[in-house]
Amino acid sequence: MTLAQDLTARYQAGLREQSEPLAEEFAAAAEALEPLLKPDELERWAEIGVALSTRSLRSWEAASEFFRASPAVAKLLSYERMEHWATIGGWLSDSSPTVAATYLRVTPEVIEQLPPDPETDPGITGEGMFDTMPSRTDVERWVRGGERLNHSNWKSVALAALYFEYSARLLEQLTLDHLHELVDIIDLLSERSYQLATSCLEDSPALFATLEYPDRRPFLDFAKSLTKSSWADTRLLFERGPQLLKHIHAGERADFLMLAASVVQSSGRQGFPRFMETASALRLVPVAEHGTLIALANRLARRSPAAAMAFLRSSPVVLARLTAEQIPQWVETGARILFEDENIDGAEAYFRLESVRAEQVLSGLSARVELSDIGALLRMYAKALTGAPIAIRSTEDIVDRGIGWVQESMATTEGTSIFLPPFVGSFQDQRENFQAYKVFTTHQTGRIEFGAFGFAFGLAGAHAPATLGAREEALPPRERPALTEMERFYDLFEARGMIAALFTIVEDTRVDATVGREYGGIRPHLKRLQSFEADRRPDIRQLGLRSALAENLLRASLGRRDLMRWPAEHNQVLVDAVRALMVVEERGATVQDSAEVAAALYDIAAALPNVQGSYPDDAWEQPDSAMFGASGQMPVGDGADTDTDGQRPNEEMDFETPDQPEFRGDFKPELVQLLSMLKMQTGASGGSGQQLSREQVMELLQKSTEIGLSEMAEGQVAASVGEFLDNLEKEAAASAKAQQQDDDGEGGDGGGSDEGGSNDVRNEITWTLYDEWDFRASDYRPRWCRVGERLGEEGTLDYYEETLKRHHGLVTETRRQFEMMRPESFRRIKRLEDGEEIDLDRSIEFIVDRRAGVGPLAQVYWRRNKVERDVSVTFLMDMSASTDEEIEKHRPQERNSTADYQGDPRNYFQWLAARRAQYSPDPPKRIIDLEKESVVLIVEALEAIGDSYGIYGFSGYGRDNVEFHVIKDLDERFGDRVRKRIDKIQPVRSTRMGPAIRHTVAKMLAHDSKVKILILVSDGRPQDHGYGRDRTEKEYAVHDTHQALIEAKRAGIVPFLITVDKEGHDYMKQLCSDVGYEVVDDIEQLPRRLTSLYRVLAGG
Amino acid sequence: MTGQGMTGPGRGFQQMQVEDFRLTSEPFYLPIADEIQLFETAYDQHLPVLLKGPTGCGKTRFVEYMSWRLHGHLGNKSEEGVPLITVACHEDLTASDLVGRYLLEGEETRWIDGPITRAVKVGAICYLDEIVEARKDTTVLIHPLTDYRRLLPIDKRGELLEAADGFLLVLSYNPGYQSALKDLKHSTRQRFIAIEFQYPPREQETEIIRAEAGCSLEIAGELAKLAEKVRNLKEHGLAEGVSTRLLVYAGKLIANGISPRRACQSAVVWGLTDDVEVQQSIEEVVTSIFPE
């Protein structure tokens, strides 16, 4: 009998009592251990195991794991250390047998992950034995992690057990130090939520497996800071962290995480979202720049980690506009705000790009020119050149409209607007980029000015002989007349794509040549840009001969014949083509010439075989420029003579339209002509002339090569053509209406006749952006608020008339008072004893009288009466939701009821009647009602005096949506529509005063009058979503409003505030330092106060 | 500007009575349409003339030219043209400023004829420039002069003057800054035949600039082109288009060695507007047309 059997026999009965399998596990373990342990050791082992099993009620579970793990452990640890192992298991089982069981079970795997103890005495252990044995301290440290998580409740027990469960996998990635950091985090989390702690722990092995070793420590530091300041985000960090960090340069991640950790400490809940945004922002920045950026950020972080993070977040935007070398310069200004001015808020705003200063420095450094900065200038420039009211828009607009233009990077025009890319940054120098913009614009205006869209079939050109008519006759007769002149022209040719491409090249050549001739000043810039574009052309040798011909012509038209490449055997073809092209460069060439030249080129190209790759690369030679001669010449044998069959492009035809240079952009004469026809049709709705049927237009669109449907499948085409046509019609309708509106406006008729019709058109919202003052940063936040101006809704006339009736007396009175203000127009007042100048005639009279002995009056002076009354005033009404509040009436003290009727029923009824009378059937009056009444009164009075005035209401929600309601515009004539709009003044949402004031100021500035007054009527302090650092902060809004009022003053406008908020005195002082204000205590006095106040302000 | 005969290098100071002023040589005037014929006929038929047109388009020059050209008409037999009396109207212009007044001279008063009275007496062309600037009640006094009566009442002296044969009243005004305030009364404006002036078309304007400024035809053409472009901006930032006069100034600067861009800047851009954005736009047009 072996010792193992002996021991089994000895303890079996006791163990069975605990659990049947326990005895078997003991037997198996003893068997396995016998060869590994000395007999006395084995005996002691058995004692320890059995003791463990009986230590507490459920400690047999731990014992079971002890037995099972023992053989493996015995191979890894010396017996002495094995006992130590068991001792720990015992301790653990005192608080939780489950934790102890897990510990005991995972030990063999964990030992393999722990570093071997360098101090293991080889004397104790045998050769090669236990050389991976970890030190006692390490094991204890490992166990201590679990102990720390165990707070003796079942959730923490589960967490501790999970810790041991995951230990081996965690230790694969982490050192014991790291592990303890992680335990810190999990422990902190477990104070808040065990569920969160558990899932973070579960995520950990996978998480750390994806993090590189040097990043682990900083990551843990960051996670710890995050847990402390915003524990709920830790889970997100564990889930997404590695993904976010992946995009950051490996060498910089640690620095970045350290930075993030310090930010999190200072910014609480916002910390993690900012970290995420920053990490995603860095993703958009070339990895090579990360080092510089993070180094710069680290410097800022010394003073303001938030500013540092903001800087990183803005870096993609900044880098898009500056070179890497310029970035430190830009940072420098912000750093000065931070370190020298010690304005942390200002610096943060600067780096968030929410300060005008930041924008200024950015655009000062940047070579890039933004369309938004120079759009107005270019609009006027284009208007000057063409004499037409050309709009300048961003190319993003035309693509969105879905009317056939698809290229965002190129300039283009549809005949009434010019579309330019949102920015130009091709050159290193800001001036050059601006000049590029100017060339873009000039080429597009050139198309309009020099009639590129005005092709008319059958008109003769200046230089080229007319052949188109003969060509048309040679073709079978048309089935229906062409819709547009361009359609008729293009229909002469089999390959519409090719003729369109050639016509584009020819016409652009003509426009460029004409621009160069007419505008000598722009010629050098045009040449440079042409050359710049020519250098970016694709490799010609890959093209078929026809496409190559077109490409060569394009290069020639860009003035770079040196870049032409052509197989010498076809030289004559090229010479003919280039000379034909030169015809349109001559003075006086028209679009008709271009059409003829394009037709001739088509013939030339069609005669070429279009086999691709039939020439080796070295066969493409640069043609001798002397071949082309000095002047243009049409090829001999014009189209009329050519056999039409001969020009049919043959089978191998595969023409590739060359890409347009950016400054020329898309040229779509067919569409433009169609669009202008649609416009005319919409403009003269129901009018005479031929109406375009939808089918006709569809047919035209389907064959047109201008709408870029070629890449679509057949089925798609029909659907998208339909949609496209809808867009086109919308476009045409919109501009026709705009046109009409213009005409109406000029007629000065105020639009009284067709109120219903024009209403929906004119009620479009026009958006304007305004800066907002950030008092902390002492700077404006650029383009921060978006004000949407719209016409007020119209109600009925009843309200207005009712109010007039109700306040009849007051109305008459104010009218009279106002009429007295009316000046006696400006006139010379003569016969004064003192004045500006001596009246010559009077003086002579005086002297003559004196001589004659008549008692003269020395009234020889004259002066001019006060200058003519030239006042404009705007009333800005608060339409915030709070104006919905009822007015607390100053009711007479209700008499004590019980004392009053004293049980007598007759008294009671009297009392009841009196009480009912107090509550009139009218709905209770609200603040807004008083505002409306005031408006009615003041309108009546102002109509009497003749001052120009505007009435606006404002409300809105958030900075993106400040609603600005026009009740009566400054120039608008007073009428029923205004009366109706007054009816519809109603409470809406919040009170963002600043932008509303700024918008009103902008409107007043456009208005010409000597005295300008802005009266703002409000019921309380300014407040809005995001109008301040948080919901409770009031200062920001007050400062911005104050700033807006100061701006008004600077612009020569007299601002005045009236509030009906009784508590108004506290903030009004701050809001209106340097600005007049009044708190109307008795709110019902508002109408009266408003009118009398106006007399004071504007009367003089 | 006075007439061609009046300027010259080193010419000293000159003084004369207004009615003695007449042009001695033909001033430069390029007819645009039939305005010369119209004016001549009006003169012969004693029809007062109203010249309408924007500033600097040549109204005054036209009157000068006509006063020279009409020397053979209506008893103006002298070789020197019709006397031309110009009154620049302003808002403080009174009736006595026009008709005349008593002045003190030593111990007595003496009557001094106003410009209009002098014109009536000598048979001159009386040119009231920018008539809308004058107050409405002042302008009424010219009414009897403008119809068939051709009479000028001088109430202070109790006299009635009948105009000499060669007398013609010519008014000018610029409808550009017409406002409700400054408009001609209908009773006034319906007493005149009106000749409308516009800025001349590009070719003619080129010719005018060349002749007046003495610059090259090419420069004159570019200036006229610039003018055409700038005038497109009227009502869109500019109250008035650039006047031919300013173009002539620019041409003179260029002809005397100032670079075209600089000359346009000072004669055209800065003169036209104070609005920086509009200035920039116009400068861009200038730099597009004139190379550095």
Supply database-style keywords:
heterodimer; A: 1100 residues; alpha/beta; 3-stranded mixed sheet; 57% helix; 9% strand; B: alpha/beta; Rossmann fold; 2 domains; two-stranded antiparallel ribbon; 9 strands
Task: Give an account of the 3D structure.
The complex is a heterodimer of chains A (1100) and B (292). Chain A is an alpha/beta fold and 1100 residues long. Chain A has seven domains: 1-134, no CATH class; 136-210; 212-360, no CATH class; 370-449, no CATH class; 468-667, no CATH class; 805-817 and 872-883 and 924-1099, 3-Layer(aba) Sandwich (Rossmann fold), CATH 3.40.50.410; 828-864, no CATH class. The longest helix of chain A is centred in the middle third of the chain and has 34 residues, at 714-747. Chain A is flat. Chain B has 292 residues and is an alpha/beta fold. Chain B folds into two domains: 4-196, P-loop containing nucleotide triphosphate hydrolases (Rossmann fold, 3-Layer(aba) Sandwich), CATH 3.40.50.300; 202-289. Helices cover 38% and strands 15% of the residues of chain B. Chain B contains twelve helices and nine strands. In chain B, the strands form three sheets. Chain B has a five-stranded parallel β-sheet with strand order 2-5-8-1-9, sandwiched between helices. Chain B has a two-stranded antiparallel sheet with strand order 3-4. The longest helix of chain B has 15 residues, at 217-231. Chain B starts with 34 loop residues before the first helix and ends with a helix. The chains are: A alpha/beta (1100), B alpha/beta (292).
